[in-house]
Amino acid sequence: MILKKLVEELIRKDRVHPDNIVVLSPYRYDNKRLGIKKLIDGNPGIFSLDVTQKGQDKIRVSTIQSFKGLEADVVILCGIDGHQPACKPSILYVGATRARSMLYVIQKQNPDI
User: Fold this and answer.
1) CB 3.0 to 4.6 Å from 64: which of 39, 54, 89, 95, for a disulfide?
2) 112 part of a folded domain
3) Could you give the CA distance from residue 57 to residue 45 in angstroms, rounded to a whole number?
């Protein structure tokens, strides 16, 4: 899974503290369209669904809408699919502008391309 590899690389290789990483999506983490529920639920020591609590030594996971007005050094936007209403440009703009230093975008594979 791309998200898992990216998170491991950021923490181990790049030495980014987990508190400085946020995973954002237009969908809730448990939405089947996103496909990260098993990863998040299987790693409660790594991920947190409480976006307001920094200082947990965990990567925060949230919807873009719930993270509006907050910031993080590293933002990973995932589940991006331009064909869905949840991925309209205004929502993606909000997600992208939450990043202070680094922004990663993981786009869903499009079988039409």
Assistant:
1) 95
2) no
3) 9
Taking only the tens place, the pLDDT of each residue in 70-84 is: 999 999 999 888 777
CB atoms within 10 A of CB 15: 7
- In which domain, by residue range, is 44 found? 2-107
Residue 113 has pLDDT above 60, yes or no: no
Q: Under the phi-then-psi rule, with left for phi > 0, alpha for psi from -120 to 50, and beta for the rest, what region is 17?
A: beta
What CATH number is attached to the domain comprising 44?
3.40.50.300
- Rounded to 5 degrees, φ, ψ at 82 are -60, -10
**Total tally of structural domains belonging to the chain:** 1
pLDDT digits (tens, 9 = 90+) for 44-65: 899 999 887 777 899 999 999 9
pLDDT of residue 82: 73
DSSP run (H or E) holding 37: helix 37-41
Tell whether 113 is covered by a domain.
no
Radius of gyration of the chain (CA): 13
pTM above 0.70, yes or no: yes
